[in-house]
Design goal:
Radius of gyration: 19 Å
Largest sheet: 5 strands, parallel
Number of helices: 11
Strand order of the largest sheet: 7-6-5-8-9
Order of helices and strands: HEHEHEHEHEHEEHEHHEHH
Structural class: alpha/beta
Distance between the termini: 11 Å
Number of strands: 9
Number of domains: 2
CATH architecture of the largest domain: 3-Layer(aba) Sandwich
Shape: globular
Helix content: 25-40%
Oligomer: single chain
Length: about 325
């Protein structure tokens, strides 16, 4: 993989959001991920592609799945990895980020993977640090690698993304996954519909060219793929359910159980960005259904993140990757 052609390059120096990517960028990431997926299925899963690269993982919010996925991707590429976890810090967010910038500059880090509760934090970092930045989620703004792995998983399951009808269900208002997915799917030619409580639907979301259907049963009959978002309890009121009466009522109206799934009358691919609130967004029977690709999303996440890191490292001027 070290000799893999890098004549094709991303049009961006950082992955700050899907909004900045072109359709050609996304296709290049997918093709690169295809190659890395072959590597991941070998007995020896490591390649020396980023042997001389130092990557810092900065997580100002707790995250197990995304952090572990990035760390695994980095180690599979033989990068040197430095982990920072600043969740729970009492320092104000702005001061923390400036301190972080200075620390990174002092440590001569080549790439930074950052999750931060403030929208725009990754953009801020990219303007103050001479390193490639990967946004691992900034507030309720974007989560680009999740959208890439979601679209990649659809492509793998259905053979294409163009023309596919994708339904995104749930907490759209607090979800960075939803926004990144909308941008990514539309760039690849998919149709997107949203479904969820009106209190969890952002104002003016219809200006993004998506359809909105408040009735989950009707929406399921329309779609080829249903992406069941996690209810972001921690991003809502103190009780976690201030935007709808109870979790039980949410599950009845917008949750996907086996009975509702059978009523659709056709095969629908089931997705979930995880972690799952079983019995709320989806029942265990649906999460573990033959048409569920939830575990494929997790596996594909490593290949996609390897591809993103590899392609961005090729944009580092002083390094021959």
């Amino acid at each position: 993989m070290n000799s893999m052609a890098t004549s094709e390059q991303l049009s961006v120096e950082h992955l700050l959001g899907i909004k900045e990517l072109t359709a050609a960028d996304i296709e290049l990431i997918f093709r690169t991920a295809d190659s890395f997926k072959e590597v991941l299925n070998r007995p020896i899963k490591k390649v020396p592609s980023l042997r001389d690269i130092t990557i810092a993982n900065l997580f100002f919010e707790s995250s197990t799945r995304t952090r572990v996925s990035f760390e695994l991707a980095e180690k599979r590429l033989s990068a040197d990895v430095v982990n920072f976890s600043s969740s729970g810090s009492s320092v104000s967010k702005g001061e923390t980020l400036v301190d972080t910038v200075n620390n990174i500059l002092a440590m001569k880090v080549d790439m930074v993977v950052m999750r931060h509760p403030d929208p725009g934090a990754a953009v801020f970092l990219s303007r103050h640090v001479d390193a490639r930045i990967v946004n691992a989620g900034d507030g309720t703004h974007e989560h680009p690698t999740q959208a890439l792995l979601d679209a990649y998983s659809i492509r793998e399951k259905l053979g294409k993304v163009k023309g596919v009808k994708v339904l995104i269900v749930g907490d759209i208002l607090h979800s960075r996954v939803a926004l990144s997915n909308i941008f990514c799917l539309q760039k690849l030619g998919a149709q997107v519909m949203l479904c969820g409580p009106q209190t969890l639907m952002p104002r003016y979301i219809d200006t993004l060219g998506v359809r909105i259907e408040p009735d989950l049963d009707k929406a399921l009959k329309w779609c080829d793929v249903a992406n069941m978002l996690r209810i972001q309890l921690e991003r809502q009121g103190g009780d976690g359910i201030s935007n709808f009466p109870t979790l039980r009522e949410y599950a009845m109206r917008f949750g996907l159980d086996l009975e509702r799934y059978k009523r659709v009358g056709k095969e629908v691919v089931i997705m979930h960005p995880g972690p799952i609130n079983r019995g709320v967004e989806v029942s265990s029977q649906v999460a573990d259904h033959a048409n569920s690709i939830i575990l494929d999303q997790v596996e594909n996440g490593v290949a996609i993140r390897m591809a993103v890191l590899y392609l961005l490292a090729a944009r580092i001027p002083r390094t021959a990757v």
